[in-house]
Amino acid sequence: MNKFTFRYFPSRLTAEEEALDNKIFRYSLVIPILFLVIFWMVKLAEIMLDVRFIQWGVYPRQLDGLRGIVLSPLVHADFSHLAGNSASFFVLALALFYFYRKVAMRVFVFNYFLSGALLWIDGRESWHVGASGIIYGLAAFLFFSGLFRRDIRLLSISLIVTFLYGGFLWGLFPTDSAISWEGHLSGAASGTLLSFLYRKYGPPLPDYESEDSETDNDENEDTPHPIPEQ
Fold first, then answer.
1. pLDDT digits over 98-124, tens only?
2. Using CA atoms, how far apart are residues 96 and 78, in angstroms rounded to an integer?
3. Any idea of the CA torsion for 75, 76, 79, 83, to the nearest 10 degrees?
């Protein structure tokens, strides 16, 4: 009976391959951890200073709301909101930087600003805060990139996080006035667009190995209103 493994999740690695894989993994942790630290430091600063950074959010079609494109992902309504976003952000950002290391920073930065800009254009008139727009963008990028590249690994990661995130698809619809579904939709649109633009980039396509096969065919890649939570 044949045994199959993925090239990026191999059952057997040489010492050199394992060292390289560990190095890639460590580098992939840097940006996700850095942003998580910032998220939690901002929330702790609110508590310690007894202030709210609501005005750091996106306020659509208002000049004061433009700064929220940069700052709103750093602000969360409460600890429950922050904790819910932290795990999903970490896993998805880690997957992006691990699998797409050659273009990960570009995708991350473009998604960060594009999702916020789309929200500023199309969102309802209220303060929008939270990192969910980025999360939806990362999930959409991994999912549709997996479709474009026919890579089940990327699809699986995105689907698992979508399941764990809970109500991911429902978040794209106006089911709760306290939730910024526009931010979710803007992020999903951003991630989908970027997955198309970068469809030729990514990890090598899965290489299935058989225990009975001695050949290995590789394919290399080249006064605030209510705050909708994102």
1. 999 899 999 999 999 999 999 999 999
2. 27
3. -100
Amino acid at site 104: A
- The answer to whether 131 and 40 have CB atoms below 8 angstroms apart is no
Spatial distance between the Cα atoms of 103 and 201, rounded to a whole number of angstroms: 7
**HSE (side-chain half, CA atoms, 13 Å) at 154:** 28
CATH C-level class of 15-197: mainly alpha
Rounded to an integer, the average pLDDT of 57-67 is 94
- DSSP string of 121-186, one letter each residue: HHS-SS-BBSSHHHHHHHHHHHHHHHHHHT-HHHHHHHHHHHHHH-STTGGGS---TTB-HHHHHH
- For 37, the token pair is 């630290």
Half-sphere exposure of 152 (CA within 13 A, CB side): 7
pTM of the model as a whole: 0.81
The Cα 209–Cα 196 span in angstroms is 29
Per-domain boundaries in the chain: 15-197
pLDDT at 188 over 80: yes
Task: Mark out the alpha helices in the chain (DSSP H runs).
Answer: 15-49, 68-71, 79-99, 104-122, 132-149, 152-165, 181-197
